[in-house]
Fold DUS-like FMN-binding domain-containing protein.
Amino acid sequence: MAPALDTPGGGLDVTFCDPSVDGLQALQRRPLMQIAPMLDVSYEDFRQFMRILIRRSQIWTEMIVANSLLSSQKECRALSGFLDFAGHEHPIVCQLGGSDPSILAEAAKLVEQWGYDEVNLNVGCPSDRVAGKGEFGASLMKRPECR
């Protein structure tokens, strides 16, 4: 079995990639399951429960609207309401929603500084709550300038 590696959250780093590790060891470190972002579901309690059930998983946050994240920062409101996660949630992906590349880039930098393992851009959500407002999610596919 692959040795446990220290991560910021103190858990097993299942995303570690080392070319000196043989194929079986590398396979044993990969997540077995992706816990996808789900609107009104992927809150911290749910993510922690999923981590208990499926240790070798990669957990995603609910989509965070990039404009809201930057607005909170500029108005000196705490970003923790948007970005906090428990250390044992690693590996964790923060999904951002938006349509302005410069705003998304700025939000992605904040997410990276907060310690997330990955940043993901929502371009597939068909929900009217996402695609119908602010032109992001699946509606981005209608805008060639955003591709």
